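Let us practice reading a record.
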Amino acid sequence: MPTPKYSRVVLKLSGEALAGEQGYGIDPEVIHNIAVQVKDVVALGVQVAVVVGGGNIWRGISGSARGMDRATADYMGMLATVLNALALQDALEKLEVHTRVQTSVEMRQVAEPYIRRRAIRHLEKNRVVIFAGGTGNPYFSTDTTAALRAAEIEADVILMAKNGVDGVYSADPSKDPHAVKYDHLEFFDVLSQGLGVMDSTATSLCMDNQIPLIVFSIGDATNIRKAVLGEPIGTMVGGKSRD
């Protein structure tokens, strides 16, 4: 069995990645395929925590732009992430992967409240922990949640699985045919060039706590495994250059 490069990881899944080609809602086939990949990584002995977004159901910033109170819109987005987390939990447990969902907004009938030490204990018992509800506060993205939880549980790396893009580019590759894909970047480059890998709060949090980030496409069913094994896929942000 190959030896993983990382022993504890945070997998960041955008809500859009869970929608598949339909672009909205939850695609059961996509959820199943992601669950299979996570099971494969867990079988390697890697401790996996997952942070899910909610953009496939509701985006708080979009609601705010249309006149809704920003805090209310963001809380609605937090609830959307719980729907995605429960769907992923169901898919994982059908594959006999022990899973716990922890939410920042308490809803004890469906999930545990987020407790750092309990989350770490679950990971040590080889359970997949899915963090839902964002940070529990409006005005913060799920990217920031991923950075915050990674720091709290002392994860080795954040795996940022993107939908439709295989790394970080100098410009939008769908609009600029001359866009260049980066193999390695420093967090300062992301901030100074406004590359949009994640929002500035999350980027700064990763930089301050020296948590590397790997950005790659969720489209390839082997990419999560490759990232965990340290194979050069996507774009590495922070950490050591792979040259």
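A brief commentary: The mean pLDDT is 92.
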